[in-house]
Amino acid sequence: xxxxxxxxxxxxxxxxxxxxxxxxxxxxxxxxxxxxxxxxxxxxxxxxxxxxxxxxxxxxxxxxxxxxxxxxxxxxxxxxxxxxxxxxxxxxxxxxxxxxxxxxxxxxxxxxxxxxxxxxxxxxxxxxxxxxxxxxxxxxxxxxxxxxxxxxxxxxxxxxxxxxxxxxxxxxxxxxxxxxxxxxxxxxxxxxxxxxxxxxxxxxxxxxxxxxxxxxxxxxxxxxxxxxxxxxxxxxxxxxxxxxxxxxxx
Amino acid sequence: xxxxxxxxxxxxxxxxxxxxxxxxxxxxxxxxxxxxxxxxxxxxxxxxxxxxxxxxxxxxxxxxxxxxxxxxxxxxxxxxxxxxxxxxxxxxxxxxxxxxxxxxxxxxxxxxxxxxxxxxxxxxxxxxxxxxxxxxxxxxxxxxxxxxxxxxxxxxxxxxxxxxxxxxxxxxxxxxxxxxxxxxxxxxxxxxxxxxxxxxxxxxxxxxxxxxxxxxxxxxxxxxxxxxxxxxxxxxxxxxxxxx
Lengths: 250, 244
Fold this sequence. Notes:
The structure holds two protein chains of two kinds. Chain A is of the alpha/beta class. Helices cover 39% and strands 25% of the residues of chain A. Chain A has one domain (2-249): Rossmann fold (3-Layer(aba) Sandwich). The two termini of chain A are 30 Å apart. Chain B has one domain (29-243). Chain B starts with a helix and ends with a helix. The A-B interface holds A 48-50, 70, 73-75, 77-78, 80, 82, 84-86, 88-91, 101-102, 104-106, 160 and B 18, 21-22, 25, 109-110, 113-115, 117-118, 120-125. Chain A: This is Phospholipid/cholesterol/gamma-HCH transport system ATP-binding protein.
């Protein structure tokens, strides 16, 4: 479980996060949603330590993360898997080397054991046999799946996903969403997905927090989101013609 | 580099020299960088050094030789100039262009494509993993390249001098072997060590703190070469002042 309390973050005079709190449980898919510039990626980066919040705390299973030093954070980071918006695969390494990288760095396993783990992860994301390809040879969807395979290689307790559907076609987006949900339930990970994609929200949003202009405006599940009377959230959820047309059916 | 940047540079170096997570992986990266910086630059340094040596001989012959100055002076001036200044400094400036821009754009691209963030999320000390192997390769391979450059520059002087008839082979060899002070080699190697550090660490700093996209990576790469060259020349003066 990850708990954030009263997170504040500014860049110069621009206060991007204004006291965000929330509790993200294990085994369910937690979503942080909001429009562009609402602060969701900044919140994610504060949670994983890439940004340092001016106020507030981030707690990983009762371990206070924000006050830890670099060495102490390493222990928690070994338990984190992350899929980046652009996948962030290492260009100079093959798919196999990318997935094996954290295993090489932090385990004493034999090469065969590591290779078995790589193949298992690739199988899990339906990319068997793609070991020797380089990131430049992969499609956007395949890169995302390799990113997921790398993120789960170390059996993470916490999985962070930043905009998993950006740049993907709707069909591939659904495949990625379902994969994230399956892995979350299968390994009981605390999964936090940052997205503005309404298909993801309706498909996998077990617990959702909605950010608007740096503040938390709403929290709930995908079953509740369409019936809320929060104006800012309704403007976000029913922005598209398709969602407007489907409004009465939720 | 202003004071803020210099402070950030020192803080980055502090992070670079943290204890590596796994020595075996760092060692592999060091050898890879040695191959890139050392072996990959041998051809360029060889060509430049040979021609500089040859041109130096012709210019010394043109400027210095008269009936009152023995021709052996051409060999000894070429030797000392090559060892003390031309080989370390010209090699370093050429390497700053070749290696510095490569290092800066490699690390800068990793920054803007979130690969450095990915390393940090995994719990890896990204400055150490990315920059330490480059610095170690730089401070070991640049002195070796400079030794090769000294040899080829003096050899180039011999070839240029004898082919043009500016100096006879016997006079040139007598010149390069007379009054040789081995301490000049020590000075040159100290310079090469310092330059090797600058050539790798300054571009790494420029790349590591890039913000933006392709344009900013290119700008950082240019800045890396310019700052490296100026720093090399400033350090050249300081080391020369201190050691000679």
